Amino acid sequence: MALNRNHSQAGGLVIDNSESILKECKDVELSFSDMANKPEAFKHTKKGMLYLTPYRMIFLSKGKDPMQSFMMPFYLVKGCSIEQPVFSANYIKGTIHAKPGGGWEGQASFKLTFNSGGAIEFGQVMFKVATNASRGIPTQNAAAYAYTPAANGYGPPPPTVNGPYLYPAPQTNGYFAPPQPMGYPYAPVPPEGKEVPPIVLG
Q1: Which whole number is the average pLDDT over 19-36?
Q2: pLDDT at position 186, please?
Q3: What is the sign, positive or negative, of the torsion defined by CA atoms of 45, 50, 52, 56?
Q4: Which positions, given as ranges, span the membrane (predicted)?
Q5: pTM above 0.90, yes or no
Q6: Where do the domains of the chain lie?
Q7: Predicted local confidence at residue 142, as pLDDT
Q8: 2-3 and 77-83: which strand pairing?
Q9: Distance between CA 139 and CA 50 in Å, rounded?
């Protein structure tokens, strides 16, 4: 985790040449809690943009704030989850641990609130990318992880297990063979020498 190391003087984002931006979300709020001796940079709710790279999340504040940028590498984030409250915006929460030389010490709980939506999609891509990063699998592009809703609201039907249902070939007279009976439509015949008890109704 690094404080104020990923922004330019003009307020833009600065990342390594080997990284790419997989996803970004506008109108995100970042807040911290459960922090001993909270520095000024961690007080109050920050507003800005959230970026996802193959190895970390980077929050970039809008305006003049003591926290201009905040970088959270996946290996320092613990207990991360996506929350969907009924009467407020969806958010991602977790705990971030400081690393030596990162600009602060200890650990803190964080909350990323997505006021304009996108928490679910961002979180899904983030969890997939973080899992790959922990396994050492490089991420090539965001298209492999991006959520793309279907145009009409419905996705394609799931593939059938044994391929599409094939109708039997018609007979020479143009009619299909009669269907086979399902299950046991009639009572089974009792074995020889056994008497069937009478059925009593009512």
Answers
A1: 88
A2: 52
A3: negative
A4: none
A5: no
A6: 2-8+22-137
A7: 46
A8: unpaired
A9: 18
Give the Cα separation of 155 and 103 in Å (integer): 46
- What the block records as the tokens of 198 is 């009478």
Looking at residue 91, its pLDDT comes to 94
- Three-state secondary structure along the chain? CEECCCECCCCCECCCCCCCCCEEEEEEEEEEECCCCCCHHHCCCEEEEEEECCCEEEEEECCCCCCCEEEEEHHHEEEEEEECCCCCCCEEEEEEECCCCCCCCCEEEEEEEECCCCHHHHHHHHHHHHHHHHHCCCCCCHHHCCCCCCCCCCCCCCCCCCCCCCCCCCCCCCCCCCCCCCCCCCCCCCCCCCCCCCCCCC
The pLDDT of residue 12 is 75
Q: Is 2.60.40.10 the CATH classification of the domain at 2-8+22-137?
A: no
Query: Which residue shows structure tokens 């999340």?
Result: 57
Contact 117, 90 (CB under 8 A): yes
State pLDDT tens for residues 57-103. 989 888 788 878 888 888 889 999 999 999 999 999 999 988 877 77
